[in-house]
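Re: [ENG-882] Designed sequences occasionally contain unexpected residues at chain ends

Forwarding the minimal case from QA. Structure tokens:
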């Protein structure tokens, strides 16, 4: 499959197909984000409540409890930090899925570049604030390819 593998259909159809292919990662990312935000807000409310109890005569108002997300056996038992990590992992998987579906050849080059770095080297570069320069050319090629696809979709929609 080449980067132009979807050309025979409209760009809007391409976008729909890509969204369908990557929907699982997106839903997992969103589920963890909702869990994280809920647990974070509960923690903030608890701190706020403790502050109210420590300050007699305080004018701070009581905050209402946020609505918990629907129970999920994989995500609900995690700590807020665990949900944040899972959100990052599934978000990264979603982005890679989108890139692979939209621009498979260019993404293959990018992933190959990433794999040449050891985890230790990658962490050192990120810690030094140089993470954005890792595989910069390959990443820019993927970004341009995806941007072209979005541009085609907008032209299809707007005519």
């Amino acid at each position: 499959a080449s980067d132009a593998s979807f050309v025979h259909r409209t760009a809007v159809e391409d976008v729909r197909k890509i969204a369908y292919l990557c929907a699982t990662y997106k839903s997992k990312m969103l589920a963890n984000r909702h869990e994280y935000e809920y647990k974070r807000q509960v923690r903030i409310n608890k701190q706020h409540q403790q502050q109210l109890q420590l300050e007699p005569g305080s004018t701070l108002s009581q905050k209402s409890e946020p609505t918990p997300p629907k129970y999920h056996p994989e995500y609900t038992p995690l700590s807020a930090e665990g949900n944040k990590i899972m959100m990052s992992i599934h978000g990264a998987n979603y982005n890679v899925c989108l890139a692979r579906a939209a621009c498979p050849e260019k993404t293959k080059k990018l992933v190959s570049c990433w794999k040449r770095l050891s985890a230790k080297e990658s962490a050192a570069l990120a810690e030094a604030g140089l993470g954005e320069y890792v595989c910069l050319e390959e990443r820019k090629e993927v970004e341009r390819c995806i941007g072209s696809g979005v541009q085609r979709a907008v032209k299809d929609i707007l005519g």
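QA comment: On inspection the terminal residues look reasonable. The chain has a mean pLDDT of 87. Proposing we downgrade this to a documentation issue.
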